[in-house]
Amino acid sequence: MRLTADLIERSASFMNACRERELDLRGNRIPAIENFGAIRDQYDTIDLTDNEIRKLENFPKMTRLRTLLISSNQIARVEPEVSAKLAALEMLVLNNNNIVEFEDVLEGLEGCRTLRYLSLMDNPLTKKPHYRLTVISRLPQLRCLDFRKVTRSEREAAQELLAGYDGKTLKRGRKPATSESSAEESKSKRQKKLNEADIANIKEQIKKAESMEEIARLEKILETGYSIN
Q1: Direct distance between the N- and C-terminal alpha carbons of the chain, in angstroms, rounded to an integer
Q2: What are the tens digits of pLDDT across the range 47-66?
């Protein structure tokens, strides 16, 4: 069902528990966001849960909207226009969608200076290594991620992660190339060339590591291809 001005007009609107004016567009099999101009920026919260929307895009400029609930859709990307059009957005719930890469969501949200609460639970992205720290490093204004408070230790760890990578490489989720001086330093510490079993074991250790220092040490071993004293 298309998101028409008539559907918007017929949909329920009410004062929610947070005393915010909310528009309920749940469960209409809506394939795309369109005709939002008909809303006339009258709502604090819009609920688009359980539809078939593929991209978060095509918003008019909305200065009142603070909460957007859009779980259980097919969203694979948040377009950069979102931060410019939704200037007051504080909470975005994108659970159970199809977001795979960091850039698919972070590129569109980095400009949302008012965003404080973000949830991406049950997206493929959340299975990536250092998922929470990467999101926190790119969206430092967040207070809660996936309904868990962002702690001071997480912020510090996110800063360490960001400091360990140049910005361009971090956005792609890859490690930067080793400099010649670093390579020479690594050679002096070689013990044994890693085999496939060693590499698999180290990758498993990285997943279970509890500190940034341990992650950095293990990643260094993988980077050089040799065990290190």
Answers
A1: 63
A2: 999 999 999 999 999 999 99
Burial class (CB in 10 A: 0-12, 13-18, 19+), 126: middle
197 and 141 inside one domain: no
Q: Which two tokens stand for residue 158?
A: 């996110």
Please name the helix (run of DSSP H) or strand (run of DSSP E) that holds residue 190, with its range, or none: strand 190-193
Tell me the β-bridge partners of 46.
23, 68
Q: Encode pLDDT of 88-105 as tens digits.
A: 999 999 999 999 999 999
Please, what is the angle between helix 180-187 and helix 212-224, to 10°? Answer: 90
- Pairing type for strands 21-24 and 13-15 reads antiparallel
On whether both 92 and 191 belong to a single domain, the answer is no
Residue of 199, 184, 194 lying closest to 227 (CA atoms) = 194
pLDDT < 70 regions, the chain: 164-194, 207-229
Task: Indicate which CATH number applies to the domain containing 143.
Answer: 3.80.10.10
Range of the domain at 203: 177-228
